[in-house]
Amino acid sequence: MARIAVQLAVPVALGLVIGGVLAFQAGSSNSGLYQVALGTPVTPTPTASVPAPGTATPATTRTANADCDLVVPAHPLTAQGLATPYQLTGPHGQTPAASGCRMSNAAKLGAFVQATILDPATGTLSVYDPLVVTQGTRPAVRPPVPKIPADAVVTIDFGFNGRDLFQVGATADALEQGHCVNGTAGSVFGPVSFCNGVNFFAAVQKDEQKKLLKVPSPGTSDKIIPSGGDLGTGRECPVTRNFEVADQSAANNVTTEYLLNPLTGQTAQDTTSNAGNIAGATLLRPRSDNTLLDQFLDPVLGCTPFQVPDLANNDQLASSQALDEILAGAHQPKTAALVPENAPVVRGTGRQASAARTDLYREELGQAPLESQAGQPGNPQLYCQDLVNIQTPFLAANRQLLASGQSPVTSQGNNLLTFMADELDTSFANLGCQHYGLTDPVTITRNSTGAAVAATFTTARQKAS
Question: How far is CA 269 from the centre of its chain?
């Protein structure tokens, strides 16, 4: 059974982190949270590599810029705000050209925005992907103004292919109007951030309780070979909170796609009409856990992500990060991969684990706070242990099926299996799992360019210390 895609029965599911961008032809007051208005100097994170304005850096030691600013329009939660393009530019007053923060450079520094919209009166969900343009350019095609209910509850998720993306407001109160969250004071969440997630998921839960919003089953697939013993989920189609498909963050990035006119550097929303009218357009994607699951894993596993109408694309069905989380929340596995304290996106200044930052990140995605997890793997040791003990046997058991799938990023892995093996290997290292008495369960063979071309797995159960 594939997942059901229904317009009125809401949401969706999932996360997982991709590891590259693909280019194919074709509320709360948030008091104390990290926000800056346009023109306000942004305090760099401790790992920032961008020199302060006016500081000379020898060419031999200069580090390529990895951070960008994204200008959020006024009233971002309204229909007009959704249709107003976001502007990508350099940090610390740098221009797009000087910083590399251009959508034509999306593989390294592209930004992506995604809105999910709830009609609280009916429980109906829809999606709309606001456009990101390079500051100083116009859209290749002007985005349409979506028709949304007057009392619609909107959440906006952000993704970035660089290191740190800083929200800045087009007006002094734009970020406050959107209930936007970029992290905590002096330390952002890195490549992801949010607007109004807390209010959105509270409204979703209320509509679920009223039975206005009926979340479909993820479904099952006879292609999946059960693994992981009592920890695994058998033949159930995975959601973002399944350790079978999780990585170091378990919920990270949007499923937005844009079209790039390679001749002008202008971008447009990825719609059927725009694709037909922009000759030689390139398709841009973010490094996204959700894209990996929805567009690469699900088709290979015989599953279908839950989708709802896209208001920018003539109501064609589409997924979103928020929809993935709604599905995962309604059908959360017994051993759930919720964002752990040692996830890179929630580590605070000094890269130390922070329960407060973890809970702040979680609540923007409708996930339970750490203290209410009741045995779930929110702490670093348990997360690492379950990642090793559940995902490794899943990849080993389904290696033939996964090897037949397309890699999201061929420079990282030559097929879907080797890509996921590389993701598991990277996650093990980035989470510091070796510090908990665990051994990396993946051995990877790489070609001359560094891409994974083969992988072996050690599936013996391990216990964290």
Answer: 18
Domain range enclosing 9: 1-336
Task: Say if CB 258 and CB 131 are below 8 A apart.
Answer: yes
Q: Are strands 164-169 and 67-72 parallel, antiparallel or unpaired?
A: parallel
Interatomic CA distance for residues 87 and 147, integer angstroms: 23
Q: Decide if 352 is inside a domain.
A: no
Q: Which of 10, 9, 13 has the alpha carbon at shortest distance from 218?
A: 13
User: How do 317-318 and 183-184 pair as beta strands?
Assistant: unpaired
Residue 166 to residue 182: CA distance in whole angstroms: 7
pLDDT at 253 over 90: no
Beta bridge partners of 183: 188
pLDDT in tens, 405-420: 999 999 999 999 999 9
Q: What six digits make up the tokens of 359?
A: 């809970």
Distance (Å, whole) CA 152 – CA 448: 52
Helices (H), 225-350: 272-277, 289-291, 298-301, 321-330
Stated pTM of the model = 0.85
Q: Are strands 180-181 and 193-195 parallel, antiparallel or unpaired?
A: antiparallel
Q: Is 380 contained in some domain?
A: no
- The per-residue pLDDT for 12 is 34
Cβ neighbours for 148, distance < 8 A, ≥ 6 positions apart: 79, 82, 117, 119, 126, 128, 154, 311
Instruction: List pLDDT tens digits, range 377-404.
Output: 458 899 999 999 999 999 999 999 999 9
Q: In terms of residues, how long is the chain?
A: 465
Alpha-helical runs (H) found in 320-444: 321-330, 355-363, 380-386, 392-397, 399-403, 416-430
3-state SS, residue 322: helix
Number of structural domains in the chain: 1
Angle at alpha carbon of residue 434, lines to 433 and 440, rounded to 5°: 85
Question: Do the domain assignments include residue 96?
Answer: yes
Cβ contact 154:16 at 8 Å: no
Q: Is residue 17 part of a domain?
A: yes
Spatial distance between the Cα atoms of 159 and 310, rounded to a whole number of angstroms: 18
Return the DSSP state at 375.
T
266-291: string of b/e by CB count within 10 Å (b at 16+)?
bbbbbbeebeeebeebbbbbbbbbbb
Q: Which residues pair with 31 in a beta bridge?
A: none
